[in-house]
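Much of the work behind modern protein science is quiet bookkeeping, done one molecule at a time. The fold becomes a row of whole numbers, each drawn from a learned catalogue of backbone shapes. The protein below has been through that process, and both of its lines are reproduced in full.
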Amino acid sequence: MKKIILIFIILASSCTFEKPTEFSELALNDSAFTLSGKEVTVKEILNNYKEKKIFIDVWASWCADCIKALPSVKNLQKKYPAVVFLFLSVDKSKKSWKNGIKRFNIEGEHYNFPKGMKSGDFVDFINLGWIPRYIVIDELGKISLFKATNAADSSIEEALKSSI
């Protein structure tokens, strides 16, 4: 019994429930692609929207949960028109990614991580194990919401409403 308790204590103390407020340098230097095929870093993407609130939707065209969540995301877009809606696809196929944007009429800023959801410094940093995944960045460039997997999660609206 003592061994079980000791193992539990070690496991519990080794788990981190940290909620980072900024991306690591490795994550910021990871590459993505624009719709026109230009390679850019995550840092360059975020710098395009400095001093704006950013809603990040990590998704893929093959992800049924991502597609089911789109009406909720589109409602957020209507409710918060000043927010930048950044769609980061983990589709390995650029053709599928672009077709998904058109097919599901996804409006916003679009980038693709063609390594998929299991490889790359950005997806490693956010510990991507499930999509869709939502992140909110405040006007100072800080992560105000690190992890939400449901577009109707009240924490998303709280992060979008909050002002600095």
Notes: Confidence is low (pLDDT under 50) at residues 5-17. The first helix runs from residue 2 to 14. Helices lie at 2-14, 25-28, 42-47, 64-79, 94-103, 121-125, 154-161.
